[in-house]
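Reopening this ticket.

The earlier resolution said the output was attached, but the attachment link was broken on my side. Pasting everything inline this time so it's all in one place.
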Amino acid sequence: MWNDIVKRPLPACAVVVAEGQLASRISAAFRPGTVPDGKQEGFRHAQESKNRLLHSPVHFAGRMPTRLAQERSSYPSTGGQRRDRRKELTHNGHSSGDKSWTPPEPSRASRSFALRSLWSYRGSVWDPIRNRLFNYESKPEYGLTLISLADKETAEYHEQPHAVEFLWPDGRIGRHTFDALRVDKNGLRVAIDVKLKNRVVSSGIEEVQQLIKEQVGTDFADVYVIRTEEHIHEDDVADAELALRALQFSCATSDAVIAGLIASLHGLCRVRDLVAAAGMGANGYYAAVRLIREGALEVRDDARISFQCFVRRPRA
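Inline output:
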């Protein structure tokens, strides 16, 4: 799991193979002079998804709710009884009978970051699953945070956990704060330091980790790793951000429709063809993304998730 991630380029040639129900629905969707069933319904779902994006106080992973967005909820309606999505959100973004919205929990990081310059790359990521903000202090940390939060094998993720004390060879007491502590569902605890590749040696982080391994060991973590920008691929970051966005708009009905189409899928198919066959617009696309995250769909050649990527049922 923690080995280097190597993305393979998408081959220039690809073949779509689809049979049964999916093939018939796709051919109907693209036959000249015909209108596929449910197309108008798909337009309606797409418009609803667009409205949720425009009016939700918390938009996408990596963006904090702004004061303006929070104040806007108190503005009087000027267009009749306009549906207010904010009042229908619970802590995990799902509809609820109490018509309430719970603000995200603040970051639990053991230290607060300071903006040292105009070029500082610091901020917070909103996780719709845990409804919590997670701080990051560099671009690689931002990517690692997104990937870890979107990974379904992650049970808990702590950014900047409490500092660990150790002794330097000369007897001095040292304190080190790891950039993250990830706990997997199998119980594995991974302590992570994130550094730019050209600063690993000069920072002395390898010596610090070795001393902590010898003196603290499994009292803090089971595995100690150093991650650089080479371990955090931009495709994985983009996929994770998209997955968190899709989880914000979870819909069991959409998931069931896409899952039904997957059951009749043989060979490869583009995501856009699944969405067209479902006739659900953006809801269908987000459902496909969620099913990719759950492992119900497999992306060919580890390509970046998009409308154009090829997917198939998981191979045995």
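Reporter confirms the inline version is readable. Residues 1-39, 53-98 have pLDDT under 50 and may be disordered. The chain has two domains: 13-60+88-94+250-316, 123-227.
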